[in-house]
Amino acid sequence: MKFSVPFGTLLFALLLVSCSTGLLKYDKVEQLKKNEEFEEAVKIVKPPETTVGSETDKKAEIQAPPEKKQIPSLPQAKKKTPVKKKPVKEAKEAPKAAPEEPKVVTRQPDIEDTVGFEEGSRRPIADPFRVGEEVIHDVHYFKVSAGELRIKVEPYSMVNNRKSYTFAMEIKTSSLFSTFYSVDDRAEIFVDYEDLVPRVFQLHVKESGQLREAKMLFDVENNTAKFWEKKVTKDHGEEEKKQEWEILPFSQNVYSAVYYMRNFQWEPGKEYAFRVANDKENLVFSGKALRREVLDTKLGPMKAIVVQPNIVLKGKFKPIGDNFIWLSDDDRKYILRIESKIKIGTLVSEVVAINPGKP
Questions:
Q1: Sign of CA pseudo-dihedral 291, 292, 294, 299
Q2: What CA–CA distance (Å, rounded) separates 208 from 191?
Q3: Domain limits of the chain?
């Protein structure tokens, strides 16, 4: 899982060509999902499953609160004649101490832009995320639809007793591409609500050539990352991998980075950066806002900001090819379009539907 452009590990799976069709069959799927070490370290509590905007939700919103029962009044006690108190001499006020100068707290880490964030805080002034938000993309290659990508914000979860965003990305091949190679993948990212760093990541891969379960734990208190992977492939059978390495404070992973970049303002001509930890490496995501433009979409013309992403690895700047991301030019910064030039042609993922979620 090398870091390329955001979504790269998902999008390029669509272009794998295989003689097989349908998803890989395996009779020990449940064993792939089990991970005792991870389960001992992580406790995830999700709210009961409800459909955002469902009839049940609407009824719950419309229902009036139950009427309060009237409490019978108690008999009034007889009024007592007030007793006059002797005046008390006022004590002399102690001299007031000089007010302390407010401490200036800078936002961490210092490589990140501070515009649009609460002073000294990791939280943005305007939260771009809404529960129930879903941005749907059509992924195509040479104008042929290869599949559908869904970028979602699900109800908040509690991760080790801390409130967390629940982000999800799902990708599924179209019926045409499924005749060559089938993909039905889902990534879940749990990002801490207060400090906006990912604590837990889970990847569920179901494809023609492989079944894979990956889990990652960011121990932000000790600045370490643990990664577990179990998979079975048609060519190599069962495989397992475990990684552990030191990470820098406030690091994102490759999937949370897709969401985290939406917290910034992205003013044209300005560069933005934040840390990313992936595959035993500590990187810096660097993106430059190139320009504002009006993007033609299936939803009509949309104002957008064009961003070109790059990475810095071990202090060296490494461009990652002709890759571009279009963000909506508003306070939500939806991912509207992704372009990635490959050896032959260009892979494009562009918006076809947006559900803004609940405010």
A1: positive
A2: 30
A3: 8-20+38-44+107-355
d(CA 78, CA 93): 40
pLDDT interval class at 97 (50, 70, 90): low
Q: How far apart are CA 79 and CA 285, in angstroms?
A: 74
Interatomic CA distance for residues 261 and 254, integer angstroms: 11
Cα separation, 272 vs 151, in Å, equals: 22
Residue 106 exposure: Cα atoms within 13 Å on the Cβ side: 6
Look up residue 255 and give its amino acid.
Y
Instruction: Look up residue 90 and give its two tokens.
Output: 């006022």
Q: Are 123 and 194 within 8 A, CB to CB?
A: yes
The pLDDT tens digits for 226-277 are 999 998 887 778 889 999 999 999 999 999 999 999 999 999 999 999 999 9
CB 184 within 8 A of CB 169: no
Peptide bond before residue 72 is cis, with ω within 30 degrees of 0 = no
Residue type, 314: K
Q: Which amino acid is at 15?
A: L
In whole angstroms, give the CA distance from residue 207 to residue 252: 26
241 has which bridge partners? 229
Extract the tokens encoding 36: 């005792």
